[in-house]
Amino acid sequence: MVRSTIIVRASDALPLAASVDDEQTEQALQEHKTQAKVIFRRLSPNVEPRCSIESGQYTLHYLISDNVCFLTIAEKSYPRKLAFSYLDELSKEFASTYGAKVDTVRKPYAFVGFDTFMSKTARLYQDTRTANAAASGLDRLNDDLQDVTRIMTKNMEELLWRGDSLDRMSHLSTSLRSESEKYRKAAKNINFQAMLRQYAPIGAVALFVFIILLWRFW
Questions:
Q1: Per the UniProt record, which residue ranges are transmembrane (predicted)?
Q2: What CATH number is associated with residue 188?
């Protein structure tokens, strides 16, 4: 289930709003909220707009829309489709209510009043059966949310200890395609050179005979 939610401005990680968590939840998620801050600091215009980052028994799902990052910490067993449906609902309501003010605020948690909508929506998504029915009834799952296999998944340990950046994640598939194309061209060139080495002597002899015959019968 959805345990906690944080909303920040993507360009500078300024906190805009957050769910009001009880003391027990705050203690249980202390480490993961620290990890969320690491993610916020590594945001850039090139990162994946939707990503799931696994960390122990929880998964941190984030969605970036209009310079705002919506991140929720959910139990690892909670369906990704529902997690991103929840974040999608938050992003639409937040854009409608505060969108024009996002780039101008200077103090943290300027939109703390958004907690009311977050709490109401989070309760709707606590039970997966209720959430599935709501999402289906409201028809708010678009193609991107339906195909959760296209949402990148990362491991928090890799992100923290191997120094992988979120930028690196977004460029990984592009780099792989580029390398694949490079090797394909190299293979074609090698095959062409091998064909030349195989047939060049035959071609040279044929050309020589042709020239002799041409000179003789001219």
A1: 199-217
A2: 3.30.450.50
pTM of the model: 0.68
Per residue, the 3-state secondary structure of 53-76, as one string, reads EEECCEEEEEEEECCEEEEEEEEC
pLDDT in the model for residue 162? 52
Q: Are 88 and 140 in contact (CB under 8 A)?
A: yes
**Residues in the chain with pLDDT < 70?**
127-151, 158-194, 196, 199-200, 203, 214-218
Count up the domains in the chain and report the number. 1
Percentages (nearest 5) of helix, strand, coil residues in the chain: 60, 15, 25
Give yes or no for a contact between 35 and 60, defined as CB atoms under 8 angstroms apart. Answer: yes
Collect all residues with Cβ–Cβ distance below 8 Å to 21 and sequence separation of at least 6: 3, 4, 29
